[in-house]
Structures are given as C-alpha cells and as structure tokens.
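Marked as duplicate of an earlier ticket. Keeping the data here for the record.
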Amino acid sequence: MIRTPLRYFLIFAVLLTLIVSASPSALALDTIRLASEQVSGEIQSMTRDEVVIKPIGGAAVRTITTDQIISITYTGQPGPMQMLVSQLSQSNYGAITRTLEMDSLKPERISDERIKAEVAFYSAYAAAQSALSGAGDLEAAGASMRDYVNANSNHWRYYTAAQTLGELYSAVGADDEAIRAFSLLRDAPSDEIKLNGAMAQAKSLMAAERYDQAVPLFDEVLNAGGTSDAAKKRALVAEVGKISCNARLGDAEDGISTLKGIIDEGDSEDAELFAMAYTALGNCHLAAGQNEEALLAFLHIDLLYPSQARYRAEALYHLSRLWGEVGQGDRALQARQTLLSTFGDSTWARKSAGQ
C-alpha cells in the first residue's frame, strides 16, 4: 500500500508533466513565434507596430515589434489555421486558397476579430501573390488587398499588406497609387520596414520614368549599410536600381560594366536580383544603342527567370521588338503573344497593344 504523502507526490508529478508537455493550444494560450523563440501567454493589445503579450508563468509583460513576428497562434483559433501558417512559409498560395474553403474558416463562423483579420490577410495575400506571378487577376487581387488594408489598420500584418498592395498597383502601371501605398511603410518605427518602403518607392518612381526622384531613395538604401544577408541583398538591389536610373539619365556605359560584375560575382539562384540585374543591363544597352546586347540580356530573363513575372513582362515587351530588328519575326511574334496571353493586364502588355 502506497503511503499518502508518496501518493500525492506521484499525482503532483503526473500533473506537472502534463502541464509542461501540453501544447499552447491545449493551455488556451496565444503564442507569438519569433526567429529564435516562442512567447506564449495572453495578447493584451495589438497595433500595426507592436503586439503586447503577458507571458505564461507571471513573467513581465513583453512588447514585441511586428517586424520580429513570424506568426501568431490565437486562443481558440480553428485547427486549419496552422495549415495556413505552414503553407505561407512554403509560398504555396494555391494550397492556401484551397484551405480557406474549409467551413471552419468562413468569416461568418469566426467571432474573434483578430482571427477574422488573420484569415482575411491570408485570402488577400494568396490572391495577390498568385496574380503577381501571372496566375491570377491583378485588378481583383488589388481590390481585395485594398479592402484588407483599409479595414485592418491595426493588424500586425498591416505593413506586409501595404507593401503587397503597392506591388499590385505597380504591376498594372498605377505608379502614383503604388508610391502612396509604399509611403505607408515610411511611417513605420522599424528601420527595416522604412528601408523596404524607400526601396519600393524608388522602384515605382523608376517605373514611372521619374528617374531623378528615384536616385535619392536608392542612395538612402545604399547609405543605410548593414551586415545581415537581407541588408546586403537590399544594397545590391539598390545599386542595380540606381544604375538603371542613371542609364536613362545619360550614363549607361559605366553601368554596363558594374552590372556585369554583379552578375559574374553574384548567386545566380537569387532569381529576383538576377532578373532585375539583367533588366537593368538590357536597358543600359538600349540606352547605349547596343540593341543586340540588349536582346541577349532580356533573353536571359525569359529563359532563366520566367517566374519573375514583373521583369519577364518587361523582357517580353522588349524582345517582341528586338527579335524583329535581327530578322527573327516569328520569335518577335511569339514574345508578343506570350506577353499578351500571360501578362495581359500588365503595363507592358498595354504598351505592346498601343494603349
């Protein structure tokens, strides 16, 4: 027969084990996932800039800036929400759209406004990324993301949504609207978000052919420095953007040699950077009157980086003209047809159609 003190001790040990091993959802906790830790407790407030959480166990209240947050699990959220987190981390936007069709994720089934805003973000963001890759309707995606931004100004994903809205505007050639959307990032307390805003505004100004206004913003990014991988890549992108602007302002030759150096020394697996670099190189060659070299630069994008929709659309626009200049009329027609069928609502398709 087990003595009473020992019996109580064993019961206490079992209960403690169950508590320690229990998942945050089992304990009915909110959980904020950061790069190096998870913070579980009760979220007390949320804005676009920060989330305040009281951790479990009586620890001091923590204020976490939103640029540090990877994901949030809410008390009482529907089970499929965890699927959405995983699918977003894998950039599987088609899977997100299918998951959102589940009954428990329908807006009318959700009473918690925080969870409802989270689901609305996933819906708008998946549609946006699909459209930006050429697999969806840019206008419809833009309307959905604009609705999200207007309705959720104090949700932690606000800045990501604002940047995506700007990218959708850029994709359809609405550069002034894009610049205004990106300006929302410039109001963030985070230097990282501010620099992302400066970079995005600079790209939009460049697309609007306001090169003299874009250069100072690219310089702002370059002067920010930074030793992280993200900062180094951002600096390279800013350098490429500045070179492209200067080429249009009459200084193409120096840019060509610098861009070739970036391409030779860079990681060709970085599709976004290389697509942008080859686009800049093609435009530098065009500005210098070197059309055959420009054709080769744009051809790299079409063949090697077809997933980079924004840059491929521009490449196809130029290829539809440059192939004709070298006696390849069939290839010129093919490039134009691909542009119109794949990126029909892009600014480059409208230019090709004479709109």
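See parent ticket for discussion. The CA atoms of residues 95 and 311 lie 25 Å apart.
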